[in-house]
Fold this sequence. Notes:
By secondary structure, the chain is of the alpha+beta class. The chain has two domains: 2-237, no CATH class; 242-327, 2-Layer Sandwich (Alpha-Beta Plaits), CATH 3.30.70. It contains nine helices and 17 strands. The chain has helices at 14-24, 28-35, 73-81, 87-108, 123-139, 168-173, 191-200, 258-270, 301-312, and strands at residues 2-7, 43-52, 55-64, 71-72, 116-117, 143-146, 149-151, 155-158, 161-164, 179-181, 201-204, 210-219, 229-237, 241-254, 275-282, 288-296, 317-327. The strands form six sheets. A five-stranded mixed β-sheet has the order 11-6-1-13-12. Strand 2 and strand 3 form a beta hairpin. The protein is elongated.
Amino acid sequence: MKIAYFDCFSGLSGDMVLGSLLDIGVDPDALRSELAKLPLTEYVMAAKPVTRGGIGATKVSVKTLEKGLVRTYHNVRRVLEESGLETQVKERSLAIFQTLAQAQAKVNRKNVETIHFHEVGAVDSIVDIVGAAIGFSMLGVDKVFCSPLPMGLGMTRTDHGMMPIPSPVTLEILTGVPVYSTGIHAELVTPTGAAIACSYVQKFSDMPPMTVEKTGYGAGRADLEVPNVLRLVTGELAETATAEAAVLITAVITDTDDDARTRMLEKFLDMGAIDAWSARVSRAGGVEALELNILTSVDKEADLVNAIFLTTGADDVLVARQPRRRRG
Length: 328
């Protein structure tokens, strides 16, 4: 299974996501061709190599002639619905903007349809979100994972005035997502970055076992005390061995003929035993006996122990738990 993992040691924003997708190999010309299907005013998307803290990365920027236009959720939705984008890309982009609108509506205590996008309504944010949806489609991964998200500290200036970091909208979007404070006085995770991640990520956790194929870096805007890049890693999800409890039941009974022994073992297997076998043994005084061994799961233990007593008349049964390895 091909997967992607976002290592967000320095944060997450829309332009960082798009930069990491281009850096890992998404064709920029093909991306621009798809973005041209949006009915937007003239803009130029540029991608250039930069260095952040000694790490080479791709920095995406969008320059536009649009100035001072505050888009509503209704307006953004119409732009996407009227576009010639592929259905999958269009639906994913709409879902991301809906996440943003619902979070902002809750924070502002307003109806979602009346929400005005300020920080995420301009052309550059639309390009970041739609570009990310196009890039993921081109990347062709089956699942996306992401590290817990780092939060900055302090205040930032917005069109609504001064706002705390992390922003209320960002935290609303990240409900249920693991986050932690870095002590860095900067906005590390933006609402756009949070909404993109929550739309794609199946699990926020440490890097899963994987065979690395490619790595890409998307650069953020500011110079921070840590390399301001988002790391994207793609590869094959590794097959891992996990421990599963198993029970080994052992009983020594009077020796029986081959047919009776076969019927007993078949009965135990029919009852759900993982495996069952027997061996002739010699007891004290040279008495011949039969040792039964049944490997089973914990939930089948009681039924099989009772069956041994009822079927064989055994005086004692030994139960031993042990780890059984299975591939997962």
